[in-house]
Structures are given as C-alpha cells and as structure tokens.
Write the structure tokens for this entry.
Amino acid sequence: MILEEKERYLVLRELKEAVSILESSPDFSKLIPEVGCNIGMAIPEADSYEDVAAVEGRIVRHRDRAVPVGCVDFGASRHVARIILASLRYDPEVRAAINVKYSREALAACIDMKLGISSFDRAEEPENSSTMDWGTAEAIKKYGSVPKVIYDKGGKGKEPMIRLLGRCATEVAKLAVELAEKIQ
C-alpha cells in the first residue's frame, strides 16, 4: 500500500513537470487539437482508469499558449487512459501518452525524427468496442511492438489525431515540443 502511494505521488509529480514543459513552450499550442489535448501517465502495473493520471478537463490553446483547464489527478481522462492501458498490455515500460493534432506536416516530422509510427482506421473498428483501446491495440499489432507514434485520420465527427507514447510523461512532453518546433 505504501509503495503504491509512493508510485502515485511520483506519477503526479512527473505529470506536473510534463505539463509545465508544455506550458512553457512557445510552439506547442499549435499542436493542440480542436478537442483539446491531454497527457497521461500510469503507475507501474496499472490495470484501471484510476491508475492513470491526466489533466482534468484537458489542455487547451489560449492566446497561442497551452493552458491546462484543470489539475493533474488520477482517473481524470478515460480517453488517454485507454491508450496507455492498451499499450501496457504489450510493453509494461510504456506508461505515458499525449494526443496532438494530426497533419501531414506533423506526420512527416515524426518520420524525420525517426520515430516508430503505426496507425489504425476508425472505419474498421468492430461494434461495441472502445476506439482508443481497439485502435491502440490494432496499431501495436500492425507495428509488432509499441511504436512512439500512433495516428488515425479521423472519421465521421472524429478529429484526426496523433498520439505520442513513451516511458514517462516528461519524455512524451519533450517529444511533443520537439515535434512542434520541427513543423514551424
């Protein structure tokens, strides 16, 4: 119990640092999708949404800056939690993810950065499944392991999206900032 509390504290601290990295970047706001962005990180051996911390209410663009709407907390985003929990099933080291705006330029920059990339097609999603759970697993199976980048080109009423995955929240935050700088 004490060990889990320690892990939860460390994840919250790591995530706050990651949000700070995003907030202080002059370029990152351009990568924020219309629906907003979120970044999350799981404790080791996470198995539920409550084991994944994220930003309550997401991160939005305000006056060309990235601004978190709420605080960092566990269970704050089922969306980003699904991506991380699906990744954890294939690689227990991949405990963090962030979603950013999809564009051909952003995808090209990911290729230039030599990041492993995979994708899924929302049109192929089986009924009664969660897109993020199914899509993440689909992209990982197609790639053969957990890639740094998983994207989809959207669907009816769904914005195209790129997700960056990594070992910790600061890693994916720095990756997102680097990506934003590359597409300037």
Observations:
- The mean pLDDT is 96.
- The first helix runs from residue 2 to 24.
- Helices lie at 2-24, 78-88, 104-112, 131-143, 169-182.
